[in-house]
Amino acid sequence: MDTHSPSPEAPPSATIGLAPPRLDLSALPPRMQRELRASHVGETVAVALYDGVAGATTDPEVLRFAASHRRVEKRHLRLFEAVLPPDKRSAPMAFWRWSGRMMGGLPAWLGPSYFYAVVAGVEAWVDGHYARQIALARKLAPDPALLNLLEACRLDERLHARDAARLDPAPLWAARALAGLAVFLSRVGVRAARWV
Ligand SMILES: [Fe+2]
Questions:
Q1: Cα 59 to averaged position of ligand 1 atoms, centre (Å)
Q2: What spacing in Å lies between the alpha carbon of 156 and ligand 1's midpoint?
Q3: Mean pLDDT of 17-26
Q4: Could you tell me the distance, in angstroms and rounded to a whole number, from the CA of residue 157 to the centre of ligand 1?
Q5: pLDDT for res 42
Q6: Gap from CA of 86 to ligand 1 centroid (Å)
Q7: What is the count of structural domains for the chain?
Q8: Where is the signal peptide (predicted)?
Q9: Residue 69 sits in which domain range?
Q10: At 104, is the pLDDT very low, low, confident or very high (cuts 50, 70, 90)?
Q11: Would residue 9 count as lying in a domain?
């Protein structure tokens, strides 16, 4: 998988130039369709998370981090939008976007340690979420283009987690607690998004 060299403005990304897979969604097992719906919600929340940072902090490093990672999450979202037509997406999109803004805005407002801890925790969890989806897709829908999309997104999320952990390798205990709560809510959200 080709990745690009890191820079502050353009983080390395496995999804640069990636074309969306041409999938016959109705031919996929319902379980896989639900998984893709959950990932579309996850990417929507990710973009909103970074949107939520803008009005919540004036810390230049946090703002730069959020802006550069938002570009990658927006690319992920466009890829999933190309796969999933509107009638197959989760219904309460306004709620998901609000949740994402809270998940980014609150920790950014509390301070950089909180923000980086939440991003590191959530993105590491999303890395595992994609790994589980890849294992499932190999069994249920081993389409090479779909596997490639999931793997490229997984690599990007892993890089985001590492970027955040590098910026604050020893977060405050309260920041770790908030990150734990954000991971718990992400887990609940993904489960809900498979069905609503
Ligand atoms: Fe993403």
A1: 23
A2: 7
A3: 79
A4: 6
A5: 94
A6: 19
A7: 1
A8: none
A9: 25-193
A10: very high
A11: no
8 Å CB contact between 123 and 72? no
Q: Is residue 15 part of a domain?
A: no
Distance 58 CA to ligand 1 centre (A): 24
| Residues with a beta carbon under 5 angstroms from ion ligand 1 | 43, 46, 73, 76
Domain contains 56: yes
What pLDDT score does 75 carry? 92
Rounded to the nearest whole angstrom, what is the distance from the C-alpha of residue 170 to the centroid of ligand 1?
24
% of the chain beyond a pLDDT of 90: 60
In a domain, 184, yes or no: yes
In tens, the pLDDT along 66-91 reads: 999 999 999 999 999 999 989 889 98
Does residue 100 carry a pLDDT above 60? yes
Instruction: Residue 161: give its domain's CATH number.
Output: 1.20.1260
